Amino acid sequence: MAKARTGRSGVTLLELVVVVTLMGILAAIGAARLGRSAFANFGSQGEARTLSLSMLRAERAAITTGDIHFIQFDAATPRAATQYNVMRRLTPGRDVLVEGPYILNKDVKVVATAAKMDFNFEGQAAAAYQVDFTGSGRNWRLNVVPITGAVVVTDVTP
Predict the structure, then answer these.
(1) Whether 68 contacts 119, CB under 8 Å
(2) Does the domain made of 37-155 have the CATH classification 3.30.420.10?
(3) pLDDT category, 88, cuts 50, 70, 90?
């Protein structure tokens, strides 16, 4: 003789609807509390880290191929950039696109000290580069050390 199941397994549709509704209410409260400015702050840090990874890929590609690789912005100081590309210089005057374009977040002001940031076959940067990322509350700075090509991202919020 089979035993009758006494315990319940699973959830009812009503319980599922209540949980999803509560999660939606909490998400709406969180989004309203944080607001657009908080998301822009997260965006400024994210943009800085994304660019630093692109620079490291350009540096490593330059070492691997022996060709100059560089980051090319669509604007430099004092204008804010809206996008950048990773480029490779095959011969003088002949540059090819490696990656991009990377579109920068509209809520983040990005100002670079140079429109082109080169890395040679040894991974060294051609100059000391700096890129500032300004969110509505937090600011980040990306610095490139010329001799080593090291890329450092720091919080420079006043």
Answers:
(1) yes
(2) no
(3) very high
Q: How confident is the model at residue 137 (pLDDT cuts 50, 70, 90)?
A: confident
| Tokens at 140, concatenated | 């980040």
Rounded CA-CA distance 22/15 in Å is 11
Instruction: Check residue 34 and give its pLDDT.
Output: 64
pTM: 0.71
Sheet strands side by side (includes 116-119): 94-103, 83-91, 68-73, 116-119
Q: Is 12 exposed, middle or buried (0-12, 13-18, 19+ CB in 10 A)?
A: exposed
Domain ranges of the chain: 37-155
If we measure between CA atoms, which residue out of 157, 135, 131, 133 comes closest to residue 143?
A: 131
Residue 33's SS3 state is: helix
> How far, in Å, CA of 143 to CA of 115, rounded?
14
pLDDT-based confidence at residue 107 (cuts at 50, 70, 90): confident
Sign, Cα dihedral of 67, 71, 75, 78? negative
